[in-house]
Amino acid sequence: MKKRNLKNSILVLVIFSLLFLAAAGTTAASDLEEITIGYFPNITHAPAIVGVSENIFVEQLNGIKIKTKIFPNGSLFMDALATNQIDLGYVGPGPAINRYLQGADVKALASASTGGTVLVTRKDFEYNSVEDLKNKIIATPALGCTHDLLFRQLIKDNNLNTNRRGGSIDHRAQKPATMVGLFATKQLDAAVVSEPWAARMEADLDSKVVVDWNQMPWNGKLPATLVVSTSEFIKNNPELIENFLKAHQKTVEYINNNPVESSNIIQKQIKEITRQKLSLEIIERSMKRTNITSELDSSVVQKLADLSAELGFIKGDSNLDGFIDISYLNKVTK
Fold it and tell me: Residue 132: its pLDDT value, please?
């Protein structure tokens, strides 16, 4: 009898302990007082820049304090997400895909922008079609980056290849700032770059955009920037995620409905963050080549991953099943 009572007492204690832990976890999620959003001071991150500046996130998140963390590249962003320095934010598809396939906890919830990447040539380059890139010197910002993969698909679609893979195009990796000097000294014929670099090259060098953002592979539907978080944070804070995406969608609509005001906000915020001032003309031209949208086409993202694997930048399986979760976005936009 005593043994049975002891067992019952232990069972009751275990049940109460589990209920206490469950309640504690629920309280921690619902009582969240502050979140940290990560993003870059880039044109393609316009929803983050405008949403933070205009307090759209603050108003939608019911009093939760918003902290921000600015990043210079996707690798550092993904490090911060993995170590809980940020809770969610905006990053290019390449870094997010690579970390996911390496086993990291990352989920893509929405797009922030598509397009924004173009093929630009030196002003005296006689360009009529992609075939004119044969035996020319072409640059991309880095090997395996999103712009580089768009370039590889562009020439693949036209039965061309780079000298790195037995083709006729002299392909080089150069930082956009370096490309400007190479264009000026005629050491570079063309480049695939994102905005605002193309607009700056047009303004400063009379360079020509010969393949616009919506003429690039996949008709410009490849996300330039994704909204991402971790599955753990999403699971613990579903209401917050939904409200965040409501704010994100409101900001997307605000930018599209107020292009002049948005360009002014972006100009001001980029100057405050980077201490560099872009002219309104550059920003407005860049924004016309950047489609600000929350719509996320998972099939295009998968094609990007498959191409990256084909070219050897991703080792192993490129299957992105489980990477994208647009269920919260669908609730917001239905």
Answer: 97
Residues in contact with 177: Cβ distance below 8 Å, sequence separation at least 6, in sequence order:
none
> Are 248 and 99 within one domain?
yes
Q: What is the enclosing helix (H) or strand (E) of 231?
A: helix 231-236
**What SS3 state is found at 14?**
helix
Same domain, 147 and 288: no
Give Rg (Cα) of the chain.
23
C-alpha distances (whole Å) from 186 to each of 58, 125, 147, 179, 197 are: 49, 10, 22, 10, 18
Last residue of a domain, one of 220, 240, 262: 220
Alpha-carbon torsion, ordered 263, 268, 273, 277, to 10 deg: 90
- DSSP 8-state symbol, 293: -
Residue 161, Ramachandran bin (φ over 0: left; ψ between -120 and 50: alpha; else beta): beta
Tokens representing 18? 């589990």
CATH number for 197: 3.40.190.10
Domain that includes residue 293, residue range: 34-114+221-333
3-state DSSP call for residue 183?
helix
- Number of domains present in the structure of the chain: 2
pTM: 0.86
Q: How far apart are CA 83 and CA 76, in angstroms?
A: 11
SS3 71: coil
Strand ranges, E, within 218-292: 223-229, 290-292
- What tens digit of pLDDT does each residue of 95-115 get? 999 999 999 999 999 999 999
End position of a domain, from candidates 175, 192, 220? 220
pLDDT in tens, 49-97: 999 999 999 999 988 999 999 998 898 999 999 999 999 999 999 999 9
* Residue of 122, 185, 184, 190 whose CA lies nearest to 160: 190
Q: How far apart are the first and last CA of the chain?
A: 60
In a domain, 88, yes or no: yes
Asked if the structure places residue 96 within a domain, the reply is yes
CA dist 228 and 248 (Å) reads: 12
